[in-house]
Specification:
The complex is a heteropentamer of chains A (162), B (105), C (491), D (616) and E (521). With 162 residues, chain A is an all-alpha fold. Chain A is 70% helix and 0% strand. Chain A has helices at residues 3-24, 28-48, 52-77, 92-107, 124-132, 138-157. Chain E has 521 residues and is mostly helical.
């Protein structure tokens, strides 16, 4: 087992573990902690996959902005920061649904070689060309989404008198 | 560089998706649901990234581009979700989705 | 050629629209429309050049044919094609007569006369459309278009349970139409017909395999059968009739049921001879069941309208039997009987309506001896009943006679069943008359007036027709036989 | 009517003339199968000896009854209706007689039926009248339906085997002397013919009130007496016999039919007479007598002597109308029909009394009155045919016995009504004769009742009968052929009169001892052999019961299924709606479940189905 | 590629974007009058609509055409993100029409409403997303375009930000929407993994070269489920009823009218390729020698979904007591009919489905607009609250009756034409497809029950004494307001006009569908 594989294995276990922990712990603030670890962990995986640009983005947007947003949300909606949430939906049915989904997904694993495959390495500049070029209005789209999202979100949370 | 096995990554993303779904189904706090969605979303982004990495040709680069866009999109989604959370919290005083069942048969 | 049939449809359409908005003058507009329509019908019959006869491998001809492109999508070629032959003309005549009778009968309708007369005209428009349509979509369109005004007629102007009855009528018959539509679509697409036109479908339909024809025929039969209605799919009818206003019942029994018979002949029997042949046993069983059931159940009815409704089922059963025979004699009988039943049942429903609002009830046992107080009404009742039970010199007889003769021709001793049922039919009418018209007066309010002039006029028209065509049936028969049923090759 | 009389007289004067004209009433489409040239139903007139005979009866009796009605009905409210219906009846009857084919015959046959229906129910306020009218219509309807089938069979039969186009062109036209189709008939399948004959017999039995469809006629006496006289004695009820006579050309070919007709006729003649023996109602006694006499006619036709039957029809029409009108005169005078309330009317109503006596004598078959000639003819005719089938014997004997009963019951009625000193019920008004319009018909009919039988000695009349017989293809028998037979029958008649005199004469009222074994017989007879009870039971209990049951099934089983379907959909709908909990987690669960469902479909179900379908 | 050639094809989108920005600008400037904003929105959508119609080759409007003729229905590129098909343009037209009608009707909303700029802005932005869906040829582009609409509509539903119902609806919409988004993108990622591209044409054309059939099937499975959210297929439908119910009725009109249609167009784009492959190549597996027949399995799956959707939708609507929920369930069942078109995948079937979509925009959109208007008149949410409305307000009643009859598929309405073409196409396809027609027709028969019931309530039942006086008579046109009255009137007239003579529209759709099928294959 190569070093990459070992690292990946560790990161993978951590990812699943933190993801689960984030969704299962009862303290909401702990959730935020776990989920930030989860985001960082994924960022590490991206670095491992030779996609440093994405790794950085993941760190910035997810581990940074999104985590802060979520924390902010929890703070605003809770009287006390360390309030608990009862996971009332815990039961065999959601577990079974999630498990079966997983089983179906793993069903396709057999089609791929279990031996390590060489990774493609891309030039980040090629990526930026792709993103900002005129061939694909990706960012334009993203812009529209953000515009409507932000405009609407502001409207929603504004304490306007009607 | 020796690289990584595709299958393992597939299992990882599958597991993350399952975790996200599980969380979505079990939690009643809107923010937690939001987090569950994000966990699943990360599984998706991970998929794009590693399929880009394992792509046989350079065309796979678009996978990374997609991942970038998705990260941006996910952030917007969280923002919108939070806006709804806050508005809901203001009106109903709770963000427990199990208590918002006024619209039903 | 001048588009006469479109003119007829346009007349009715225009009349309907104007009537709707005419308010107080609605009845005059409706009457004028009806008269013009009748005149046009008369002109059509007058000018009808006759039916050219069968040519091997060709489509039976139609007169006054018009065809305009409507929807052309390559795989879907729908035209506005109309045309008539003897069968359609006879039924159009029936429509014209019933329309004028209904309009006159309901002359003093006070609840929203505009929509009332408008819907009556619309119903007739739909029926005429069905009778002239020579394109599957056009046919289906008119077929369904009849449902809506009737739904409103029953639901708004009807009796106490009108809401339930109107819904039941609408849903039940619509389900049937849907099955029929499957059949019609199958007919087009499985036969490889190049368009929805009758001619194209006719030729292509004849070329289908027996199995396909049978399935299609049964689907079509279900659609038409519910309209007939045949046992056991008849239960919408008594409810609809009992709750419908008189004008609605008249149109329902007089015209709507005829659509089923017409459709079966035009779109199933003539197009799918092999399927028809395979399905014949089924038709016979159902026809016999309908005949017997309608009559026997009638006998137990206390409500005059329900009684007439079940007798309609019985008569339509005979129509079905006549069609099922698949002989040209049988088809002739079927059309003749449809006309006869249209007139007679309309008359009887008018009678029920008048009895109801003269005496405040239609319950036969609680009435008695109404003859002295309302002799005209009683006379109408008698003529209607006697005609309905098949008395010679009245319009039903030539039809029933022909039907039974055809049955003997086709089924020999099975004719005993409908013949025996004739006795039961006579029994319930005669018994009804004994209880209601004769005997010591019972259940008669203090002040009873005989029929108002307009009701009497409406009925009188039908009575006159009943007698005139009963004595001189050849007037109709010659017209009917001027159609593909003459020399119908049989299944 | 006058025209009819002229035709009849004309026919009388020049027997053997045929008037036949027709036009097509209904031309039905031809089809390649059975009727290659289509079917023509024609309407035409045919005057032949048979129709002339009946025409004479219809017109004469009709005229006299009309005349009589002026007096009899003068105080009735519905007079216009009465005359309208009566005129319609006469028109229809004339049409029936002049019809040149079975279909047209049927058309008029039904029309006279409905006139009869209206006239029986003339006093429609009386529930019994309304009920009687219904009964008459329905019972004859049964016969009519059978008749219709008979028509179909003839039609079908002849048009199938006939020369191409022959029947198709002529429809139902029957014998006009040459009978071109006769050879065809004789060579064809007799089963069908037998059935057809039986069907015709059924029709005739309905109209002529033959057993077992006889029940309506006594009840039909609810109508005005004039109607009874004209329709239910002289003309309409005889139409059945006439029908048998004109179709005897077909019927004659099958012995089964003949036997059936003989059986029904002979049995009815006796059976009806027995009921007349005990009945207290003057009109009903005469009505039973009518049934009985019709039985004789049927018997004659069955035995193969159609013209003999018609001969009896001819005479019977006069004396039976006479009896009815006389009875009507009595009823008109004292307002009751109960024989046991009458008595001694001979003094106050001399004309009526005499008329009734003449009628009675004619009925009883006492020479030289009309009935003797014709009835003896029948008996003689049947006697001559006894050898053709052993089963003729019992019916011949029954008919013979009926002669005795006939004489007895009619004279019982005469004695009860007219003999004695005074009415038995003192409350009855004082009797007096009606106005002249009522008396004149009585006198004229009395004259006919005396002489009508003697017509047979007129050469023209004889020729008429002979020609008629020729048309029917049956050899005629006329006049008393066997003196011994006549003697016995006259003797029986006289004995009957004697018995009646012994029991009822001079105002006597015979009371059957309470312990007599005959009491039970009397009871059965008074209840008309419980036939009416049985019919009512079948009609009301059985048919109506079945019908009620069917109605129940219709409402709750068939329509119940429809409504049940509604309910099923409704409950499924409600069940599905319960899944709509409003909880978003549940919805998310559905989404995931749906996702898994899609996986199952895509990865498991669909490949399986595709492998089943074979790649399609 | 220079800027003008990039801008050119996107004129309609840019027009809407501009209008949206203008509205936000006006908001900033303090101009928030409902009528003014409505006018801007109407103008923007109208111009865009004219442009689209011009592009479609509608001669009188050719001056508005912005697309070079050779771009439309050009041979598909296996690399691009977008392409202009005439079917897509038709869908754009449908979307724009709906947006136009909703904007028009919203002119009658209370003029003092605070959120008017947001309402119109989001409406226009959502429409932009729809327009982009209609030109997408790339899976990710498609999904993102859908997200444009989604995000905007989440917020539109929450537009009544003071109403718990509205927010609850938005919450549900958002959660299920987000979940579905994840599923869709996950499916897209799997397909990307399998094919190495997200271009739909390339994916559609990919044949036996792909060695991961299970992965592909899973990918498609995720897409079926994820997109089914938008199409409201059962069992992905549960949100829709609550959302339509809780959202402002005008928004419901927009949602029911068009947002599910982008899902359907997405279905066209994503699944038609494989399904068509099945039909054109004649049933041989795209995975040469592989164990799984993609086209066949997809067809069967979609067929099952279609039948389940229409049946369950109808059954749910059957006993529904609330008007909006009834209409919502009816929308769900209608989605099932439309799916038949994709399942069969022939040009006739696409024509039928597109026609059905067009019809549904009119009927359901119109119905919700009426509901909104009637709600403003003080009529409650229950169907029973509509008692006697038809006789009290004959014109409005007639218009609504027309929409219901059209939904029920009664002839001479556009609803009949669409169903007729659709089911004809199913029968025409023969084979097992006829059972789809049978199922659809039986369902439409079932649906008649609840439409007729509403008619019954409106016309046959007599209202109790008018409990509450009309809330507002301030608005012209009998309390509806001109904008709404015009929109409703236009819809009613169109329903009949197209129902009577559908040839122009059907012909256009048919030829577009033909091109589309060729492109897709």
């Amino acid at each position: 087992m190569s070093l990459e594989e070992l690292a990946f294995l560790v990161l993978a276990v951590v990812a699943v573990g933190t993801g689960l922990a984030a969704l299962l712990v009862r303290e909401l603030v702990h959730t935020i902690l776990w989920v930030s670890v989860f985001f960082v962990d994924l960022s590490a995986i991206y670095f491992l996959l030779e996609a440093p640009f994405l790794g950085v983005l993941q760190l910035g947007v997810y581990a940074g902005a999104v985590t802060v947003l979520l924390l902010f949300g929890i703070m605003v909606t809770r009287k006390r920061i360390f309030s608990r949430d009862a996971a009332t939906g815990l039961g065999p049915v959601p577990l079974a649904l999630a498990a079966v989904t997983f089983i179906f997904l793993v069903a396709s694993v057999g089609e791929f070689p279990s031996a390590p495959t060489t990774l493609q390495v891309y030039d980040p500049s090629a990526l930026s060309a792709l993103l900002f070029g005129t061939d694909g209005p990706w960012l334009l789209l993203l812009g529209i989404i953000m515009m409507s999202g932000v405009a609407g979100a502001i409207y929603l949370v504004r304490e306007g008198r009607e | 560089m020796t690289g990584l096995p595709v299958a393992d990554l597939l299992v990882l993303s599958g597991a993350l998706l399952a975790v996200g779904i599980f969380g979505l189904l079990t939690r009643r706090n809107f923010i937690l649901i939001l987090i569950a969605v994000e966990v699943a979303m990360n599984a998706t982004i991970l998929n794009f990234v590693y399929f880009a990495a394992f792509a046989p040709t350079a065309a796979g680069l678009s996978g990374q581009a997609i991942a970038v866009v998705l990260i941006g999109f996910a952030a917007t989604e969280v923002a919108v979700g939070l806006a709804i959370v806050l508005a809901l919290n203001r009106i109903k005083g709770t963000i427990n989705v199990a208590q918002a069942t006024e619209l039903r048969e | 050629m001048f588009p006469v049939l479109s003119l007829v449809l346009a007349t009715l359409l225009l009349g309907t629209v104007v009537t709707f908005v005419a308010g107080r003058y609605a009845r005059w507009v409706a009457l004028a429309t009806s008269i013009v329509f009748l005149a046009e019908t008369a002109a059509l019959i007058w000018q009808y050049p006759g039916w050219p006869g069968y040519t091997s491998g060709a489509v039976p001809g139609f007169a006054f044919q018009e065809s305009y492109a409507w929807i052309h999508l390559g795989w879907l070629q729908v035209n506005y094609t109309v045309g008539v032959d003897g069968i359609s003309l006879v039924l159009i005549l029936l429509t014209a007569v019933l329309q004028i009778a209904t309009v006159v009968y309901s002359w003093e309708e006070t609840r929203r006369p505009g929509p009332w007369f408008g819907l009556v005209l619309l119903t007739c428009l739909g029926c005429v459309g069905v009778f002239v349509a020579l394109d599957i979509l056009l046919f289906f369109l008119f077929w369904e278009a009849v449902l809506v005004p009737m739904f409103f007629l029953i639901g708004y102007w009807g009796g106490p349970r009108r809401r339930y009855a109107s819904l039941k009528f609408f849903v039940y018959t619509h389900v049937a139409s849907i099955v029929m539509l499957v059949g019609l679509l199958g007919l087009v697409f499985y036969s490889g017909a190049t368009s929805f036109d009758y001619s194209s479908v006719y030729l292509a339909g004849h070329g289908l395999m027996t199995v396909t024809q049978t399935f299609l025929f049964l689907a079509l039969f279900f659609g038409f059968g519910v309209k007939f209605p045949v046992v056991p799919f008849h239960t919408w009818l008594p409810d609809a009739h009992v709750e419908a206003p008189t004008g609605g019942s008249v149109l329902l029994a007089g015209l709507l049921l005829k659509l089923g018979g017409y459709g079966l002949i035009r779109w199933a029997v003539l197009i799918l001879p092999l399927g028809f042949h395979e399905a014949q046993p089924v038709l016979f069983v159902i026809a016999f069941a309908t005949i017997a059931w309608g009559s026997i159940v009638s006998l137990a009815q206390r409500d005059l309208k329900r009684l007439v409704a079940f007798s309609s089922i019985n008569h339509m059963g005979i129509v079905l039997l006549a069609i099922a025979l698949g002989s040209s004699l049988g088809l002739l009988a079927a059309v003749l009987l449809m006309f006869a039943h249209g007139v007679v049942s309309a008359l009887l429903f008018m009678v029920s309506g008048s009895v109801h609002h003269t005496y405040g009830t239609r319950d036969i046992p609680s009435l008695g001896g109404i003859t002295p107080s309302t002799p005209v009404l009683a006379t109408m009742t008698m003529v209607g009943s006697l005609a309905s039970l098949g008395l010679p010199w009245l319009i039903s007889f030539p039809a029933e006679f022909t039907a039974l003769l055809a049955t003997w021709d086709g089924l020999a001793y099975w004719v005993l069943l409908p013949l025996g049922i004739l006795v039961v039919t006579a029994a319930f009418y005669i018994w009804m008359m004994q209880r209601m018209l004769f005997g010591p007066p019972r259940g008669i309010p203090e002040t009873v007036h005989d029929l108002p002039w307009f009701e009497a006029a409406g009925m009188g028209l039908l009575v006159a027709l009943t007698i005139v065509l009963g004595v001189l049936p050849f007037l109709l028969v010659n017209l009917i036989t001027s159609s593909p049923i003459a020399g119908f090759p049989g299944p | 009517m006058v025209l009819g009389l002229l035709i009849a007289v004309g026919e009388m004067l020049s027997p053997g003339t045929y008037v036949n004209s027709q036009f097509t009433w209904l031309h039905l489409a031809g089809s390649p199968g059975t009727f290659p040239n289509g079917v023509s139903l024609v309407v035409g007139t045919l005057v032949d000896p048979l129709s002339a005979l009946l025409l004479l009866v219809v017109t004469v009796v009709g005229f006299l009854v009309m005349l009589y009605s002026i007096g009899y009905m003068h105080q009735d409210r519905g007079l216009p209706r009465y005359y309208a219906e009566l005129s319609l009846f006469l028109a229809a009857m004339t049409g029936l007689v002049l019809s040149n084919n079975l279909l047209e015959f049927f058309l008029f046959w039904e029309l006279v039926g409905v006139c009869s229906y209206f006239l029986i129910g003339f006093y429609y306020e009386k529930p019994s009248a309304a009920s009687a009218a219904k009964e008459a219509f329905l019972v004859t309807r049964i016969g009519d339906v059978l008749f219709l089938l008979g028509i179909f069979i003839y039609f079908y039969h002849f048009s199938t085997v006939g020369p191409s186009g022959g029947w198709a062109a002529n429809g139902f036209v029957f014998a006009n002397g040459t009978a071109p189709y006769l050879p065809v008939v004789s060579g064809s399948g007799s089963t069908l013919l037998t059935v057809a004959g039986l069907m015709i017999l059924g029709g005739a039995a309905g109209k002529s009130a033959q057993f077992p469809l006889h029940v309506w006629l006594p009840d039909a006496m609810e109508g005005p007496t004039t109607v009874s006289a004209l329709i239910h004695a002289a003309t309409m009820v005889a139409a059945g016999v006439y029908l048998l006579a004109i179709t005897s050309v077909f019927i004659g070919f099958t012995s089964t039919d003949q036997l059936a007709i003989v059986a029904i006729g002979g049995f009815t003649a006796f059976f009806a007479a027995t009921m007349a023996v005990v009945h207290p109602d003057i009109k009903r006694v005469i009505a039973y007598s009518t049934i009985s006499q019709l039985g004789y006619m049927v018997l004659a036709v069955g035995a193969g002597f159609a013209m003999v039957g018609l001969y009896h029809l001819f005479t019977h029409a006069f004396f039976k109308a006479l009896l009815f009108l006389a009875a009507g005169s009595v009823i008109h005078a004292i307002g009751t029909q109960d024989l046991f309330k009458m008595g001694g009317l001979r003094k106050s109503m001399r004309v009526t009394s005499a008329a009734f006596l003449i009628g009675g004598l004619a009925l009883a078959g006492i020479p030289p009155f009309a009935g003797f000639w014709s009835k003896d003819d029948i008996l003689g005719a049947v006697y001559s045919q006894l050898g053709s089938h052993p089963l003729y014997w019992p019916f011949f004997l029954l008919a013979f016995a009926a002669v005795f009963l006939t004489a007895y019951y009619i004279f019982r009625a005469w004695f009860l009504a007219f003999s004695g000193d005074h009415t038995r019920d003192p409350t009855l008004p004082h009797a007096h004769e009606g106005p002249w319009v009522m008396q004149v018909p009585l006198v004229i009919l009395s004259a006919f009742a005396v002489v009508a039988g003697l017509f047979i000695f007129l050469p023209n009349f004889q020729a008429l009968l002979l020609n008629g017989a020729g048309a029917t293809g049956i050899p005629p028998v006329y006049g008393p052929t066997d003196l011994a037979l006549s003697g016995i029958s006259v003797g029986l008649g006289v004995a009957g009169i004697g018995l009646a005199y012994w029991l009822w004469g001079n105002g006597r009222v015979y009371a059957l001892p309470e312990d007599s074994p005959l009491q039970s017989v009397r009871k059965v007879l008074l209840h008309r052999y419980y036939f009416k009870v049985a019919y009512d039971w079948v009609g009301l209990r059985l048919v109506y019961g079945i019908s009620r049951g069917a109605d129940f099934v219709d409402r709750y089983v068939i329509d119940g299924t429809v409504r049940g379907l509604e309910r099923v959909f409704g409950s499924v709908s409600n069940g599905l709606r319960r899944a709509q909990t409003g909880a978003v987690s549940d919805y998310a669960g559905y989404v995931i479940a749906g996702l898994l469902g899609v996986f199952v479909l895509l990865l498991i179900v669909a490949p399986y189905l595709l492998s089943k379908m074979g790649g399609g | 590629m220079d800027a003008s050639s990039f801008i050119g094809p996107f004129v309609p989108e840019l027009l809407l974007l501009g209008a949206a920005l203008l509205i936000f600008l006006l908001d900033v400037l303090g101009i928030r009058r409902n009528e003014t904003l409505s006018t801007v929105a109407v103008a923007g959508t109208t111009l865009a609509l004219l442009s689209v119609l011009g592009d479609l080759g509608f001669a009188p409007l050719s001056v508005f055409a912005t697309l070079p003729a050779n771009v439309i229905d050009a041979a598909p590129s296996t690399t691009g993100l977008y392409a202009f098909t005439s079917l897509g343009l038709i869908f754009q037209g449908i979307f724009l029409l709906s947006a136009l009608l909703v904007s028009l009707a919203s002119a009658s909303r209370p003029s003092g409403e605070k959120g008017a700029p947001i309402f119109y802005g989001l409406l226009l932005l959502a429409t932009v997303g729809m327009l982009l869906v209609a030109v997408a040829t790339d899976l990710i582009f498609l999904l993102l375009a859908i997200e444009v609409t989604s995000i905007a509509t989440y917020l539109l539903v929450a537009y009544h930000r003071r109403e718990a119902r509205s927010l609850e609806a938005a919450m549900k919409f958002f959660i299920i929407g987000a979940l579905s988004t994840v599923l869709s993108f996950y499916g897209a990622s799997l397909l990307f993994g399998a094919y190495g591209t997200t271009n739909l044409v390339a994916i559609g054309h990919a044949t036996g070269a792909v060695g991961y059939p299970v992965l592909v099937l899973l990918g498609y499975g995720f897409l079926v489920a994820g997109l089914a959210f938008k199409v409201t297929l059962v069992p992905f439908h549960a949100w829709a009823v609550d959302v339509y119910d809780g959202a402002p009725s005008d928004v419901s009109a927009f949602l029911a009218g068009v947002t599910k249609k982008i899902g359907l167009f997405a279905y066209f784009l994503v699944f038609l390729g494989p399904v068509l492959y099945l039909r054109t190549v004649g049933g041989s597996s795209p995975f040469a020698g592989g164990p799984i027949d993609l086209g066949g399995t997809l067809t069967i799956t979609l067929a099952v979904l279609a039948v389940v959707t229409m049946t369950v939708g109808n059954l749910l609507a059957l006993l529904q007591k609330e008007m909006k929920r009834m209409l919502a369930y009816s929308s769900i069942s209608q989605a099932g009919y439309m799916l038949i078109g994709v399942t069969i995948g022939t040009a006739p079937a696409i024509t039928g489905a597109t026609m059905q979509i067009f019809a549904h925009v009119l009927m359901k959109g119109g119905a919700f607009l009426v509901v909104a208007g009637v709600g403003a008149l003080g009529v409650g949410p229950l169907i029973d609250d509509w008692k006697g409305l038809g006789t009290r307000r004959p014109l409005l009643g007639a218009a609504f009756a027309l929409m219901l009859l059209s939904l029920a598929g009664v002839p001479l309405t556009v609803g009949f034409v669409s169903k007729f073409v659709l089911f004809s196409a199913a029968v025409q396809a023969q084979g097992y497809y006829i059972w789809l027609a049978v199922a659809g027709l039986l369902n439409s028969a079932l649906s008649v029950f609840y439409y007729a019931r509403v008619l019954k309530v409106m016309f046959f039942d007599t209202a109790p004494a008018p409990s509450t006086p009309p809330v507002t008579d301030a608005l012209p046109a009998g309390g509806l307001g001109y904008g709404r009255a015009i929109a409703i009137g236009f819809i009613a007239v169109t329903i009949v006009a197209v129902g009577v003579y559908p040839q122009p529209i059907l012909g256009a759709i048919q030829s577009a569908a033909q091109h589309f099928v060729v492109v897709g294959a």
